[in-house]
Amino acid sequence: MAQRSRHTPLEDAQGLVFGTAAAAFALHxxxxxxxxxxxxxxxxVLVSYTTPYSFAEVFFVANIPFYALALWRLGWVFTLKTxxxxxxxxxxxxxxxxxxxxxxxxxxxxxLLFGILTGFGILALFRHGASLGGIGILGLWLxxxxxxxxxxVQLTFDAGLFGVAxxxxxxxxxxxxxxxAVVLNLILAIxxxxxxxxx
Length: 199
Hints:
- This is Membrane protein.
- The protein is mainly α.
- It is about 75% helix and about 0% strand.
- It has helices spanning about 10-30, 40-50, 55-75, 75-100, 105-125, 135-145, 150-170, 170-190.
- The chain is globular, with a radius of gyration of 16 Å.
């Protein structure tokens, strides 16, 4: 079995920047196609579509309550890295539309590429001891405290969120968005295994 090694601060920094940049680009592509996703990011996307508030504002603020839980259950290092990742993603999402535009963007392609790129980005964050906060942290706590599987917590939240989205958005686009969410979750389920990589 491979010996575990610790990442240096520089390695962690590049991992957080890579992960959040991949997710920010994927998110820009997703929203440019009028699509959505799950978790707190999906909630922030839906709110940004239906209110004057931007994704960055909602995503940053909505994650704040979860930091206390992360600090309590997962430690200050994980919490700090997650806070920085959320801040980086929020900031990048503000400037991404000024840097990149799309002349043609087919919704299904955008959804699938979003799932792939975000999956890789989140894997990078996981590997460097961070996350994008939110429901994942709550799910881990509920699993440890009450034995409720974290995956079911996330699935229940996403089911409710997509149900609400059908009321506000084009049902076809919501359906296409589901394809991207499935790809993202498959990438995480298949590749995020602590026994298969050195952290």
